[in-house]
Amino acid sequence: MRIIALVLMGAVACGSPQGRDEGSSEEATSGREHVTPEAQPAPEAQPAPEAQPAPEAQPAPEAQPAPQPQPQGPGSVRVTNTVGGQAAGGTVQLVDEAGEIVAEGSSGDTFEVPSGVYFVVGTVTEPTVLLDTPTRRSDVPVRVSAGEVAEAFVDHPRSLVRFRVLRSGRPVRRWRLELRRRGWEQTVTVEPSDEYIPLTPGRYDGTVVLGTTRVEVQDVVLQADARQDLPIRVQ
Length: 235
Prior knowledge:
The chain is mainly β.
């Protein structure tokens, strides 16, 4: 019996502290204000990014036509001297790029030559057309193509001049003027005339012959495409 009583007492002693803890916990809880946190607003929805247009498709490059083969074979070229813009007589030559003469004949002739690039050379042979009968090479070459006829011109500039020799301010009736164009070795001789004389334009030096007297003159300038009356004054 004594053993049972001790067990009961131990049970009572173990249950008492639990009751005190519960009561204290309730009291502590009731003594504090319970605050419920405010609800935060949901973040605004961001607009979806606009769709970017797809890049335009680039057209495929057009196919280049294959180069056509150049026709081979001879061609023809007609070569003409001109003076003052008019066709003139004389002789002509066709010269290749190496400087070799490949054809020659009269002004206005047509030559058949291998296709290629050529220079033309013309000489005026009639003194009534140009007193100094010049030879001139064209500045621009001519291209001769196979099966075609090209045209080439050698243009000779011209000045029309009439000289008067004055001695002590008075006209001299009998005289002879020997002219040398600068840069040329050729000398032309002019005598008194009422006609205008055709000469190649440029700067000339010369000698006036008055019987046995010879008078040197310089800087006689003949202008292109002009008609001039030039006095030559001597002492």
